[in-house]
Amino acid sequence: AASIAVVGDSLAGSLTPGFEAWNADHPDQGVRVAAHVASDCPLSGPGPVRLAGETVGEDTTCIGFGPRLPPRLDAADPDVIVVVPGVGDLGEREIDRQWVHAGDPVYDTWLRQHLDDLADTLSEAGVPVVWATTPHVRLAPAGEGDWTSVDANDPARVDRLNEIVRQVASDRRDMSVVDLGAWAQRLPRGEFAPGQRADGRDLTEDGAVRAAD
Fold it and tell me: How far apart are CA 77 and CA 89, in angstroms?
């Protein structure tokens, strides 16, 4: 019935089992899914990004993510594009010799500009674009400690990222927002329900089925 292109990091990738389950249950309304995802890769562009005690966003997959996006979309020929921001944009970047993150005015301005550029690229496909908000996360640190020691887990960072996503989408007629973050908060056992969320960030297969539906 439709072709869907899913764009983002591992959170976006974890949605795909949900669409596969949809196809099994709705053979007359099946969808074809093409995924353009890269784990820990910020949608705003390659790093370096400090995240949970590591530096991410510098690998070749992330560096090539943006340049490869237009030809991947052309090949997918989607009816709709689903964009799911992930954890990469919750880390810290060095801008004007200062390490800043979501919630800092300097970072927020920089992030808005780069997501606007991404939105322009997505609009060139000529199909509706659905942005998902990012659920709160509980990333484990690379070293000692637990999720409470990771600054990127601050819900305020996620909320600010989602505010900027809404701003970007609201400026364009072909774009809308689905509140995946609010959906996660309504899960029966909470937004970090072990049966629905994996590793404090992505969706389990059961969670993907609920989210895709």
Answer: 27
